[in-house]
Structures are given as structure tokens and as C-alpha cells.
Write a structure and sequence with these properties.
By secondary structure, this protein is α/β, with parallel strands linked by helices. The protein has 16 helices and 14 strands. The protein is globular and about 60 Å long.
Length: 464
């Protein structure tokens, strides 16, 4: 008989958590204007709002913190990170930024333009994430989703729901002139479709199509290691390859990448952009110096660059990924046992609950996923995040609501942070909410919203 599974690490430091009462939580969420982002961290028992910057760093990463070189120019920590990026990802040219959305800002300034320079331009890809789409639309360009249709059926067991539909992508390339398509952006794994991976076969096919039409291909790489893990497990011919070999196979087809290092870099802050082309790196450097800092530190402290250089190595180890993705699947299986519909197969960094199926009596105009997130918080102090109509934002041309195909409550699991006992608690809490789901018939209305990326700061009120 095989031995039972155990995490490939042991706990060295703990942070106390306080249990609150339901009465306290009901008061706190009302004070927060029913926006889960507005809650104070001490008001949350299990925080699954995001896996971005919320994980636990290793002893080796903390040791690297103490070796950080904070020189303004030419810091040794920069060169440690530069060597790691070239070793693992294969890019010689990179720019450090303070996080992923800063990387998007710099890259899109160089490729799409600044101000309203993006008017008439489009950026095709697979279910662009919120900040990505926000940076595109802020420049008056448009993000076009070319994800395969299977991604929008939560119960379909497709192994690579992050894949781009090649026919959809080529239709975009044919419809718009070359100068109107500054880049194609492939997100690995695809967060907005449920943490779903892109196959190596699809990466190669997308790269071939982009090359045919002369379109640069960039990866949104926040969760690239989890994507490589799924390729190893699910794609024929990749079973015996190492994670790092698969990563190199993935990125050799890209012209560049953006990275939120707060995910698969396993650090609390940081990001970067990497380039194949030195001339594009030079163009982007101008914006990086303006927005972030000099090229050898960008938006990062030396100590954080050092920790990231270690984190990229740790994130591409099989044992780590088996534990990390396995915990996500553990929560997914527990929710399935409670009869709760989630995006299947289970994703790499989060479980996405199908709010349309969970709260069918709540109108889509009253934000089903946000309503579910609020109910889960009131029930047990668990904080998730809405990936639905609030995040989809209004159409910038018509100001009308955009209702996405999927209305999801994302439960994003921080890396090396919680135990499976916490996952049991989360599943039981959602099970309790499910028991009273037939009585939940009303959601929420907007009291105030920002003109773009509203979900971070929106203020809500109970619908009447």
C-alpha cells in the first residue's frame, strides 16, 4: 500500500487568526458597503480573495532578503534575477516592475501607445484578466476574447480550457489590418476562465498563426509553472519531461511576457517584463524608467529581486507544484461532494464556484457571484472574490452592463499558507450556504462605481 500524501515542507512560523461572530461579520460587511475588498484583514478568518502576494516565502527566500543589494544602479540582486529569468524562461532582456499591472502598463505603453493611442486597435487573447483588459481599454483599444467555447461550460471536462480557438483568432487577424493588432496575449494559466491551462500544442499553434500574420505573441505568465504542471499531467508526450523543460518549451514560442511575480514567483511584491527583441526592450525601457525606476531595479527593492530569483526556482519544482495544485483539487473535490457546481476540471490556483447554478433565483442584474461571496463571508468569515458582472465592467462605448458567460465566485488559495483543515472549513461553510440557497432571492445594487475597474472600489446596497 502506498503511503499517504504529505506536504513537502514543514511549518516554521505561524500567524494567529481570530474567529468572529456572525453578528460582527454582518456589521462589518455592511460598513464595507458590501464590497469584500473593503474588509480589514483581521475581519477575515480564511482569506481566499487572491493568491497574489499572499503566500508564504521559504527559509531560502528569507535568507536572500538579508543579502539584498539596494544599489540604485547595477545591484547584484538584479543580476541574480536576470540570470534566473534567462535560465528558466529563456529571455535575455527583462525589466523589473513593482507588480504585474505595472508590467502591463509599461508594455502596452510601448506596443499600444499612451493616451488614446489605442483607438481602433484590438488585442486578441484568451479571457483577458481585469487589469489587462483595463489597461487595454484605458488606451481606447479593445480586448477580444478568443477562448474555446468549452471554457464557458463549467461542467465540461476539457483538459485545457485555457486554449485559444484558432478559428476565432484567425478571424480577428483577417478582420483587422496588421497595424491595428499590436500584440496577441496568451494567459497561462487562464485566470478568468477558472485557472485553466493552455496546452503546449495550442501554444505552438497560436505562435505559428501569429508568425503567419506578423503579430507579436506575449504571455501573461503569472501562473506559468502551474500551467506547465498541467501540461506534464495531461498532455500526451509530456509525461516524462521535467517542469523546467516544459517551461522552456512553452516560452520559446513567445516574443515576450509579463509577470506578476506575486503568484508563481512566490513573493509578496514584484513583477517583470521579458523580451526576445532587444530593440523592443529599449523602447519599453523608456516607459519603465518613467513609471517604475531605473532598469536595474525598476519598481523592486534588491531584497525582493533576490527572493524572486529563489522563488522562480522553487515554483518550478514538481514536488512543490504537486502539493500546491493538489490542495486546490482537494477543495474542489470537497465542494463537489457537497453537490456544489464548480469549474471543472479543477484549476491551478483557485476553485471557481458557478454562482448561476448556486443562486438561480437571484437575478443576473443583482450580481449573483458577489451575492454568493457576501453570503459565504457572513456564514463563516471566508473571503472570496467575484469573477462575474462586476469585474466585467460596463461597455466603454455604450456604458451598458456586460454580462459574461460565466458568473463565478473565485476561492484563490495562497501558496504554502493554509492547511487542508482550512479547506474542510471552507467547504462546510459553502455547504451551509447551499442549504439556504432556495431562500436567497435578492442580491445587490450599485450605489457608487468608478469609471474603470470598478470592482475594486464599488459600493453596493441590498437590492429592493
Amino acid at each position: 500500500m502506498d503511503l499517504p500524501y504529505a506536504e513537502p515542507y514543514r511549518i516554521k512560523t505561524v500567524e494567529p487568526l481570530r474567529r468572529s461572530t456572525r453578528a460582527e461579520r454582518e456589521a462589518w460587511i455592511a460598513q464595507a458597503k458590501y464590497n469584500l475588498f473593503n474588509l480589514r484583514s483581521e475581519q477575515v478568518f480564511v482569506d481566499l480573495l487572491t493568491d497574489s502576494g499572499t503566500g508564504a516565502m521559504s527559509s531560502a527566500q528569507w535568507a536572500e532578503i538579508m543579502l539584498g543589494d539596494e544599489s540604485y544602479a547595477g545591484a547584484s540582486s538584479y543580476y541574480k534575477l536576470k540570470d534566473t529569468i534567462e535560465e528558466i524562461l529563456g529571455f535575455k532582456h527583462f525589466l523589473p516592475t513593482h507588480q504585474g499591472r505595472a508590467a502591463e502598463n509599461v508594455l502596452f505603453s510601448a506596443l499600444i501607445g499612451v493616451g488614446d493611442a489605442g483607438a481602433g486597435k484590438v488585442v486578441p487573447g484568451n479571457s483577458h484578466f481585469d487589469t489587462t483588459k483595463g489597461h487595454i481599454e484605458f488606451r481606447k483599444a479593445r480586448a477580444i476574447d478568443c477562448t474555446i467555447d468549452e471554457a464557458f461550460d463549467t461542467q465540461a471536462e476539457h483538459p485545457f480550457k485555457g486554449n485559444i480557438d484558432l478559428a476565432k483568432l484567425e478571424a480577428v487577424f483577417k478582420q483587422y489590418p496588421r497595424e491595428a493588432i499590436p500584440l496577441c496575449l496568451l494567459t497561462v494559466t487562464c485566470n478568468s476562465s477558472g485557472g485553466q491551462p493552455v496546452s503546449l500544442e495550442n501554444i505552438k499553434a497560436v505562435a505559428k498563426l501569429c508568425k503567419k500574420y506578423g503579430i507579436p505573441l506575449f504571455f501573461d505568465s503569472a501562473r506559468f509553472a502551474e500551467n506547465a504542471y498541467f501540461i506534464k499531467l495531461r498532455e500526451k508526450g509530456c509525461e516524462k519531461k521535467s517542469i523546467r523543460d516544459i517551461v522552456r518549451d512553452m516560452f520559446k514560442h513567445a516574443d515576450g511576457m509579463t509577470m506578476s511575480s506575486k503568484k508563481d514567483g512566490i513573493v509578496n511584491i514584484g513583477g517583470f517584463i521579458a523580451f526576445r527583441d532587444e530593440e523592443l526592450w529599449r523602447r519599453a525601457s523608456t516607459f519603465n524608467i518613467m513609471f517604475e525606476g531605473f532598469n536595474t531595479y525598476g519598481g523592486m527593492a534588491g531584497r525582493d529581486m533576490g527572493a524572486l530569483s529563489v522563488g522562480l526556482h522553487e515554483a518550478t519544482e514538481f514536488d512543490y507544484l504537486e502539493s500546491r495544485v493538489g490542495q486546490v483539487a482537494y477543495l474542489g473535490q470537497k465542494l463537489t461532494e457537497y453537490g456544489i457546481a464548480v469549474q471543472r476540471p479543477y484549476g491551478g490556483h483557485a476553485i471557481f464556484v458557478d454562482a448561476k447554478k448556486f443562486l438561480p433565483r437571484v437575478a443576473k442584474e443583482e450580481f449573483q457571484a458577489q451575492t454568493l461571496g457576501i453570503e459565504l463571508y457572513k456564514e463563516a468569515g471566508v473571503r472570496g472574490v467575484e469573477i462575474g458582472t462586476l469585474l466585467a465592467d460596463r461597455d466603454p462605448a455604450t456604458a451598458k452592463e456586460r454580462y459574461p458567460a460565466l458568473e463565478l465566485l473565485r476561492l484563490a488559495i495562497p501558496r504554502r499558507c493554509y492547511t487542508n483543515a482550512h479547506m474542510d472549513y471552507v467547504a462546510a461553510a459553502l455547504g451551509k450556504v447551499k442549504e439556504r440557497a432556495p431562500l436567497l432571492t435578492r442580491g445587490y445594487a450599485i450605489a457608487w462605481e468608478a469609471p474603470i475597474m470598478r470592482h475594486f472600489t464599488v459600493q453596493l446596497k441590498p437590492a429592493t
